[in-house]
Fold this sequence. Notes:
The complex is a heterotrimer of chains A (273), B (337) and C (277).
Chain A: H1 7-38, H2 55-61, H3 67-98, H4 104-114, H5 121-134, H6 141-165, H7 169-177, H8 182-210, H9 214-219, H10 227-235, H11 242-265, H12 267-270
Chain B: H1 2-16, E1 25-31, H2 35-52, E2 54-60, H3 63-73, E3 81-84, H4 86-94, E4 122-133, E5 158-159, H5 165-177, H6 186-195, E6 201-202, H7 208-213, E7 219-223, H8 224-232, E8 238-240, E9 247-255, H9 262-273, H10 275-281, H11 307-311, H12 317-335
Parallel strand pairs in B: 1-2, 5-6
Antiparallel strand pairs in B: 3-9, 4-7, 4-8, 4-9
Helix pairs in contact in B: 1-2, 2-9, 4-12, 5-6
Chain C: H1 8-33, H2 46-52, H3 55-88, H4 91-106, H5 109-120, H6 125-132, H7 146-170, H8 174-182, H9 187-198, H10 200-215, H11 218-223, H12 232-242, H13 246-276
Helix pairs in contact in C: 1-13, 3-7, 3-10, 3-13, 4-7, 7-10, 8-9, 10-13, 12-13
Amino acid sequence: MSQRRTFADQSFSCVFGGLTLLGLLILVGPVFIVLITSFTTSASLRFPPPELSLKWYQALFDTTQSAHIHRAAGNSLWVASMATLGASILAVLAALAIGRSRRPAARALEASFLSPLILPSLAYGLATLMFFALLGLRPSLTHLIGGHLVVIAPFVFRTTLATVTQLEPALLESSASLGAGRFMTFRRITLPLIAPGIFAGAFLAFVASMDNVPVSLFLSSARTDMLPIRMWGMMESTLDVRVAAVSGVLILVILVLMFVMDRLTGLTRRMSF
Amino acid sequence: MASRRLFLAGMAGVLAAPSIARASGSMTAAIYPGTWDEAYRAIVAPLLRQNHNVNVAFEPLFAVDQVAKVRAARGVAPFDCFVLDPGPAAAARQAGLFEQIDPKLITNAGNLPAGMLTADSATVNVQVVGICYNPKKFPEPPKSWADLFRSPYVERLGLTGFQTTFGTVSLIEMAKVFGGSTTNVEPIFAKLKEVLPKVAAVSTPAALPGLFQQGQIDIMYTNTNNAATLKGRGVDIAFVAPTEGAITFATTLHIVKGAENKANAHRYIDAALSADAQSKLQLSPFNMIPVNKDVQLAPNLDIKSLDELSKMVTHDWNVINPRRAGWIDRFNREITK
Amino acid sequence: MRAAAVDWRLAAPLGIVYLALFAAPLLLLLGISLHADQDLQQWGLDNWTKFWGDAFYRGVVWDTLRLGVAAVLVTSLFAWPLALFFCNASPRTQKVLIFIILLPLLTSVVIRTFAWIVILAREGLVNQVALALGLSATPLRLLQTETGLVLALMQIEMPLMLLPLISVMRGLDPNLLDASRALGAGMWRSFFRVILPLSLPGWIAGATLVFASACTAFISQSVIGGARLVYLPSLIWQQAMVVYDWPFAAVCSVTLLLTVLAGIMMLNWLGRYARTD
């Protein structure tokens, strides 16, 4: 039976198609502006650029001229990697702990483990600064890792929990009935099944850590300079084009990372919160 | 380009210096983000390494953030040296956040005008605040603070409140024009209320350069360093001192109470005051008005001699500070839609 | 299905880290808000009464809530069409789309504000188009308006809404829609009667994140919104970093926390109401 396209259906396609197009435009437009600006020849951030060149990328990769940016990027990478690693281990354990439970205690734990996601991070940054200060600790990368870990752990927790709840209980039971121990079952059955969820969450967590301003703003220091804070300083008052170039590099790196991870784990299919 | 050469020269100094492992010491200093960060990294840091084998790490923070951070740390100094404007400096002094500076350790003390080195502060740069405008849009610049509130200027004006030093002192001067004083800024609030529907933007100070560059605003009040830096980066901007007189204030270095590296902090302050550093800091793209009497003023600065400073308007921050919180709150209320 | 118990041994590590690095600092914040003086010597509710007794501050709370709701509404308007488009696309296109959806997260918030100045400014892209097409005789005021801010927030919040929505919609049985169509329901009716209700759990998850994030997006609020739009985060910033009134900043922070929680509970209540409907 063929369906006639009614006026109503056409209007649906028009409205939804239009919104989709506009939505895509709003998503990518600003990013394109940043990318185009990063290729400018002018001495400051200016759009549209008078001419295109790679000079700001050269300046960015210059090891003497941009040494402080490199150091900040190195710190950010280290903090993001460590925080993501720590958050992944802790969050996966927590997801396994409550994943198959329907009890109120499990719901309460889930809500509290997710709560940093909805936390005003500016308030949290201030609170952590005062907290570490009260303990008499000097600023260090370890504090930053701790602060970031709390803020990004919910990403891994959420995606992992989603995959754990979809686990077939029969599968685990049959494994146990065949004499496999708890650890054996985890390593051979559970882990491979939930790995994509872990990877997707870890990816989002890593990205969130790299771009975190509020926590870093309060916890970073002269010896623990972080990339977004450094970029903020460069952007204000001097309109330094290298800020745009950093974004260009980050986008490229993450594009490659996504491509590789997609090949390895089917990342894009698991990219959910 | 002279600035680029200078920059590279500074960087060559970094390269020539031996690796961190051989340095006899290190220290950390807060520094304003942007120009100050770049300037001190390129000029003062290599000098300090050359002369004393001390490595300085910089933490970019605005004045108020520095004070907040040290206060929050409650005795555990998060860095060794402040760089502050008079308002935050007065507040930090009241809160007891400064160590004493030992003048015997400052070899350049003799080259400074009177009052620039005190028991707990060292002036390293003076700032001059006035009106900035886009000369392409306005061949006839606004002449006075009052002009900012008249057509055609007011429609292109970018306003900023009492959060910054330059914002606070500018608004006080505007208040004076309309009949107010340092203790009574009521007239400017009345005026603001009147012009708010017309002004191009009311913005956080940090966003002003971007707004100016992209043509959202064509007139703002700021200091000469900012103006010269933007000009050096190809932005159409010019500085004009209002007929009522430009405003000046000092930027000071201080040692943080309980600093880890007190001796090196003294060396750092001394290096920043040296004629060598000051004569380079005044050049484009940094444009910092020097205080060392041995330094010949460069032509890119918007003043010809340090004597001009004595004719400019100054403010007593011990009067301003207790009122400022109220003004900030008031500004919020008046401008909120 | 058997309801398994919570395995407390596995939950403990994250729980302990949260208690030490998350709950403790926040309790400290609450403690500071209960001090009457800036030197934190005297306990008292003075700052709470100062905040809630003032119509201006209550107005700021209300504006912050409204901003969050506006961001959720505008994001939702675009999210469902985009999610439908995604679900109907080929696997290859889906991969490209995922990258596009994630793009806003990959550009630093710092530089993104610059892009929005370029777009919304007086001589910006939107105004150039509007003037060229004769849609407007004078430049539109977009920057530093609520409209501009919500638009900018929408771009950055969109991934937070889309990812959960897509993951739920992809789990829907495609036969449902076919069945609805076969029964003669038009696209509009199928969408509102089948897709919308079934994808609601994903929307609630997304809306929660968007709401929380929009309420606390300090940099976007202050740069794109401008100084004339005052929200709780900029109040926190001013009180903590400019005025040094820490107890009052703590009051603002705890208020922001409660505001966001209230909004989220409202969303969840809405969701439950819709599901039982």
